Each structure stands twice: as structure tokens, then as C-alpha cells.
């Protein structure tokens, strides 16, 4: 996948066409937001006015969530997951449950994906459970894929990174936690993927939209709190720095210096300032969340502060759920799914988030290594964040 997107000109063009088609499809959300929210979603381009985030960017999640629900109702999602999981199982020799879960995360996300295998979690081995946690943190949901594009991230790199992370998360998980037990879920035929309980596609469309509303406002509430605490930490760290004669110190600056060696080794660029920018994005994503990191990435690329190569590697590095807030979400969600495995889930949570960082750094390093040979990167700087 990395060679096709970054090394092969024809493959890169086809992938770019696919990404543009997806973006065009998602842009139809604007018609609904203009009608429902009017001015706050589509303000005039005067006096520096911008659309309200929760009424513009996040509304894409509702639209895409409804589409996924309809595809699930007709069995299309189940069919695609079975085929891709069969391919992953054949190439990586992983079991059916963990292969299905890794592939499901690409389309459904880290909370919806585990619902597919909920009846089988009690039968899973420790290594399978560990692989599921790792894959949950490594991919992004299809709905969030739409939101990240709205923030200015390049769709080509987002799509390829999310797809590569599915087998990559399984590989990293098995390296650090190999299978030592006999699995009861080896074959895809052992898993059942029933359709939803809705009776019509219209009902499914409506239920999908209603279910996504809670996610939208949950994301908005989390962003409000996280950004407020970030401003608070910046002031506290700045004040402490001034006490010892260091001026201009901030939380993001500390994160940048912490992640700078890793960003430099990934081959971001020879410009140390650009490498520091990417390191700050990586630190922001890990300590806070990927939404804030992608928003800042969109601002940097729109301001031409990052070269196409640096923006590419940053996009790969930020693609995933490996942050501390995601750990809390997984702890609550999987604990509710299967209480018997709760302690096992909690014990492996920290290792899983570390392994997912390895998955993302592997993708980032792969992109940088392929770029060293020959770069067919897409310059996304002119696109900027979409309203």
C-alpha cells in the first residue's frame, strides 16, 4: 500500500482519484447543514467569520454514520469485512476474530468495531484480546476520516495510513504478545455477522443519524474541555518558566522537545524548525487528542509552514487513537461489553497504546523511507481546512 501510494505514479494517481471521490461525496453534507443551521454553518466571508465547528465540520459524522448504517443494513459492510479479514488472516496467519476486528476498525472505529465480536470476547485468548486493543488504537473510524479531511488533512495519506495500520497493528501485537494458547476462533466461518434489527433502509438511515448525534456532541464537549485545559497548562508552565528566567515556555513546546528525537529519526526534513513543528503535533496528539493535532496541522499547511513531505509524515503520525483520553473510552466501553475480562483489558491497555505508537511510527518511517527513494507525494497545502 505504501509503495502504491508514494512510490508508483499510476497507483498514486488512482488513489488520489479515490480520495477526491470520497471528499466530493462527503461535501454533500454542506447542503444539509446550510438548510438546518443556516448562518452559523455557512457565514459570509466578511470580517474573518468562520463556520461554527460543531455545526459544520462535525456534522459530516452524522451524514457518514447514516450511510454506514444503511450499508450495514444491506450487508455490504459485512461482505467487505469478511473478504478483507480473510485476506489478512491468510497473509498474517492471525485468527478470524482479531483479523475481523482489525479490518472493522478501518470502517467503524474503536467503539463500534468491537460490537461485531462482542459474543466471542469470552472465548478469546489473551493474545487475541491484546491484538484487539492494539488495533482499536491504531485505526481511525470512517466517520472521523471525514472530519479530519474537513480540518485540512490530506485524504490520500489518511486513507492509506488507516488501511496499512490494520495489518500493522496485528503484526506489532503478535511480536510483543505472541499466541501461546489454542484459539477457538480460527476461521472466518466461525463468526456470524447478522444484519441490524431495522425493517427498512429509511429506518436504518434515521437511526444511524440519531445514534451519531451523541458522538458529535461528545466530541464537541471533549474538545471544549481539552482546549481549556491546554490553555491553563500553557499559562502554568509559562509562569513556572518565568520564575527561573525562561520566557515563552509552553506545554506544546515541552511536547515538541520530548518528541523531537523521534520525529528527527523518522526523516521529517533537514529543517529543524519543521521537525519541531511535527514533533509538537505528535506530542499534542498523544497527550491530548488527534482532533486538536489535525486542526493545528491544517493551520500549518495552510500557512505554508510545512513542506509537502513534512505534512505527509505528520499526517501518517497522527492517524490513530493512541492518546490518554482514548484509553479512558476503551476502558469504559470494553468493560461494559465483557466484565469478566475487565482486569485483563485494564492490564493490557498501557501496552496496547505503546504498541499503537509503534504502528504509527512504523507507517511514518515507511513513508519517510519511501520518500528517500522517490517521492510522489501530493501537495495538499492549497486545499486548507474545508468549511
TrEMBL record:
GO terms for molecular function: nucleoside:sodium symporter activity. Residues 54-152 form the Nucleoside transporter/FeoB GTPase Gate domain. It is a multi-pass membrane protein. GO terms for cellular component: plasma membrane. Residues 157-339 form the Concentrative nucleoside transporter C-terminal domain. Keywords: Cell membrane, Membrane, Transmembrane, Transmembrane helix. The keyword Transmembrane helix applies. Belongs to the concentrative nucleoside transporter (CNT) (TC 2.A.41) family. This is Concentrative nucleoside transporter C-terminal domain-containing protein. Residues 1-38 form the Concentrative nucleoside transporter N-terminal domain. It is found in: Cell membrane. InterPro entries: C_nuclsd_transpt (IPR008276), CNT_C_dom (IPR011657), CNT_N_dom (IPR002668), Gate_dom (IPR011642). The chain crosses the membrane at residues 52-74, 131-151, 215-233, 245-266, 313-339. The keyword Transmembrane applies. Its main location: membrane.
